[in-house]
Give the backbone structure.
Amino acid sequence: MESEFKKLGKNSTEFFKQIAGSTSELFDVDSVIGPNGDFKELKGIDVIIRSITVALYTVQGTYPWNSNYGMGLYRYIFELADERTERMIREKVIETINKYEPRARSFVSVYFIGTRPGFVVDITLTREKEERKVKLVFDQSILKQGSER
């Protein structure tokens, strides 16, 4: 029996275009239910944003099959709000982005909230012609969310 690949012959390029993951277009689904009752579809740079957000908020060791996955930036919420801590957070964020999402270029800045313990991570992501800014807040409210689950 002749394989589907061999049947395509000169049209093998068309075959490879149909294989999932073989295009440069990014596509994924978010675990949030959309207004139509289905999972929310993510495309383009939104896929990368979701991936980075999950990695930065996930505590290392959460996934038993990949105990090194994640960053767990929550642990810096009560650290001293100084240049050293700011630099350390920024370096860890850049390291995490480079490790889990090399599909985009990033610019990262960090600043402390000032009125309460915590900090904000501003990330500007660029992929091909898309650019998006993301603001992630790490304060004591995320610790409360985890205890309510």
Summary: The chain has a mean pLDDT of 80.
